[in-house]
Specification:
Blueprint lengths: L11 H4 L8 E3 L2 H9 L14 H7 L5 E8 L10 E8 L4 E3 L3 H11 L15 H29 L1
Parallel strand pairs: 1-2
Antiparallel strand pairs: 2-3, 3-4
Protein name: RNA cytosine-C(5)-methyltransferase NSUN2-like PUA domain-containing protein
Pfam family, one: PUA_NSUN2
InterPro entries: PUA_NSUN2 (IPR057286), RCMT (IPR023267)
């Protein structure tokens, strides 16, 4: 492995100017969304599943850390959105190194599907309701036993 270090996303902007061009990969929107949607490190997206544009850049890149660069295409004179993301080029795969909150934020910016991350914290899980019902029944039975015991003791 020629690149035996891992770049953290937290300090990436500080060291970005010092990273060689050979470790930088320009990535289109669709490929970036594909990488962001994959959160299983054991099943990273294979390089062959990405666009030919990315495959040509990643092909000669040795395994190790890399920087994925997304530049928004704009038709106006405004400055485009440029995102730098730390990544890892495996033997046959490519993946992003980001925390879940940053991943969801970027997916929203890019218009990606966030349904797998969208959790309503106010909605009870299906199993929670069943546990609550069972607990309530147990409490009711114990209350009845206590009332029966009090009635027998007072006589």
């Amino acid at each position: 492995m020629k690149c035996a270090f891992r770049i953290a996303n937290d300090g990436l902007e500080s060291i970005y100017p010092y990273i060689g061009d050979s470790r930088k990969v320009t990535i289109p929107r669709d490929d970036l969304i594909t990488l962001l949607l994959n959160d299983d490190p054991m099943h990273s997206p294979p390089i062959v599943s990405l666009s030919e544009f990315v495959q040509n850049q990643v092909g000669p890149l040795s395994p190790g850390s890399c920087v994925l660069i997304y530049t928004e295409e704009t038709k106006s004179k405004e400055l485009p959105l440029i995102i730098h993301i730390s990544g890892w080029r495996g033997t046959t795969s490519l993946r992003c190194y980001m925390d879940r909150h940053s991943t969801v934020h970027l997916l929203r910016l890019l218009g990606g599907d966030i349904t797998k991350y969208d959790i309503n914290k106010f909605k009870k899980a299906d199993g929670d309701e069943e546990i609550k019902d069972k607990t309530d029944k147990e409490v009711d039975v114990k209350n009845e036993e206590v009332k029966e015991g009090e009635g027998a003791a007072s006589q």
